[in-house]
DNA sequence: CAGAGGAGCCTTTTT
DNA sequence: GGCTCCTCTG
């Protein structure tokens, strides 16, 4: 397919900084992949000097695939396609000495982070959950704004901020002792380093000679800075974004970065992609009209040549079980009539918890499905345990991991022993592991407890040495064997069936680790420390044998659907309180929710179906939700409300204002 | 020290 | 309503 004039311009402009404002479905991935090909084939760039950065692993994977459809393997060799966080990790790994980090550092996920902060603030916050979560987000915001503890203390506004700054300093010291980093550090540390260290900056500017950033509207302050530092004076970069798809402001994303770029680079070339190649007419109409309710920095209007065909439907369900039943029945019926593949259907929802009933329903009907995103796999105890063991193998000073598995399976190391060990370690400023070997410990902890702890630590040393000697595979295998984990699973699981499932998950992890250690045609072999970090970054789902034969219904949150497209899309739970989410209604943050709805709608190619419930159970309580305001904002002539329960016409709504909602509610109760 | 049972929380979204 | 963490008991 030929590029349209705007796309063509976006691909071929390489003389300076370039901003591409790309509406949903306007072919931005095509622009990026074509541009990479253009740089390599026509402009004498080496693939290894080009980096393309996205936000999610899914997007990075997809882009890799797309590039390999355009470029041959040898042409693409060395091309860097990764998430911001992986790029940061690459920089840290190369510069870890300058950053004063030991090689086998651990990456703390948010649960580890939370546990540590809770521990560190026991006296001040005393388990006050709200304050704790404020602390977590305050620290994260500071890091995203490149604010270090000393400056945090200086800019603190009120007593709580002063306290938080002090906790922040404590937290950083402790992380150092654990040889651990958190997610925000993966951006913060490279950015600060590149800012202050000329030599390092030059190296990376020389390495990355052309930078492409996808989903630019999702960058936060430190990522914005990182882009600028890498691009340097020459400012050879292309960023692609859509302010209407900015759905991550809650984690520090600043869509204003799109506007800011104009000020920082007066020579910035701005290109708009407005032709949509994805969605049927009605669907695009819905998207356009919905998003017109938001204020805009850049006016853009998507248009399309695609035909109008089936209208967008709105289905009602009695309750959430019924909703799941209906969606699944719709999919089965539609598939039967049209001979589509299950993989062409996607079910999108606001919150992860909504997947449960859908899963159940799909399972009862023996429909294959795939849930992407969500934390379920990594939040299973057996998976967490295995991760903790792997982390200890690489970095025994990781106290969180230590505490998690020191007595799993049972090693006769109870809370009393651990408390004694903890107090001692604390007083010595050492990790639990390091403290275990000290002579001084014997005054606090003795006898069986001490023996058991030391036995465990010695075992860790042995396995760690084996891994460091290069036998990472063997070390991991021996580790699982040594701890008799399988036996422990059968002992501790409610049924043999459950134990089997759990062992499956353990095997999955083991399989992933092996594959990553060995590498593949497309990916270099990794070292064990790296494997462990990449697992924490969730940077590895389904590599190797692709069971994805296009026969799995796709389930995901609206957030993780961004950047994807599906022939048939269901958006479930279109109710006030769910979408828009109640907390966003309370905080008067409807615009972002509207963008979220916009993202969902624009995923659909052929058909779009909304569903909503008349009754829903929430915290065990029965509620009668109202239909989402977004449904009412859509162009009603394009909508097919089931049973012809159309809400009042546009003019009627204008005249009656609020009354339309009441009408609709009355209609519901029939 | 382990398992059972209860209190209390929860449902925003991700790297 | 269901999950996790905590406490109490054996």
UniProtKB/TrEMBL annotation:
<dbReference type="InterPro" id="IPR014016">
    <property type="entry name" value="UvrD-like_ATP-bd"/>
</dbReference>
<feature type="binding site">
    <location>
        <begin position="22"/>
        <end position="29"/>
    </location>
    <ligand>
        <name>ATP</name>
    </ligand>
</feature>
<keyword id="KW-0235">DNA replication</keyword>
<dbReference type="InterPro" id="IPR013986">
    <property type="entry name" value="DExx_box_DNA_helicase_dom_sf"/>
</dbReference>
<keyword id="KW-0378">Hydrolase</keyword>
<feature type="domain" description="UvrD-like helicase ATP-binding">
    <location>
        <begin position="1"/>
        <end position="280"/>
    </location>
</feature>
<protein>
    <recommendedName>
        <fullName>ATP-dependent DNA helicase Rep</fullName>
        <ecNumber>5.6.2.4</ecNumber>
    </recommendedName>
</protein>
<dbReference type="InterPro" id="IPR014017">
    <property type="entry name" value="DNA_helicase_UvrD-like_C"/>
</dbReference>
<comment type="function">
    <text>Rep helicase is a single-stranded DNA-dependent ATPase involved in DNA replication; it can initiate unwinding at a nick in the DNA. It binds to the single-stranded DNA and acts in a progressive fashion along the DNA in the 3' to 5' direction.</text>
</comment>
<feature type="domain" description="UvrD-like helicase C-terminal">
    <location>
        <begin position="281"/>
        <end position="563"/>
    </location>
</feature>
<keyword id="KW-0238">DNA-binding</keyword>
<dbReference type="GO" id="GO:0016787">
    <property type="term" value="F:hydrolase activity"/>
</dbReference>
<keyword id="KW-0067">ATP-binding</keyword>
<feature type="binding site">
    <location>
        <position position="278"/>
    </location>
    <ligand>
        <name>ATP</name>
    </ligand>
</feature>
<dbReference type="GO" id="GO:0003678">
    <property type="term" value="F:DNA helicase activity"/>
</dbReference>
<dbReference type="Pfam" id="PF13361">
    <property type="entry name" value="UvrD_C"/>
</dbReference>
<dbReference type="Pfam" id="PF00580">
    <property type="entry name" value="UvrD-helicase"/>
</dbReference>
<keyword id="KW-0413">Isomerase</keyword>
<dbReference type="InterPro" id="IPR027417">
    <property type="entry name" value="P-loop_NTPase"/>
</dbReference>
<keyword id="KW-0547">Nucleotide-binding</keyword>
<comment type="similarity">
    <text>Belongs to the helicase family. UvrD subfamily.</text>
</comment>
<dbReference type="InterPro" id="IPR000212">
    <property type="entry name" value="DNA_helicase_UvrD/REP"/>
</dbReference>
<keyword id="KW-0347">Helicase</keyword>
<comment type="subunit">
    <text>Homodimer.</text>
</comment>
<dbReference type="InterPro" id="IPR005752">
    <property type="entry name" value="Helicase_Rep"/>
</dbReference>
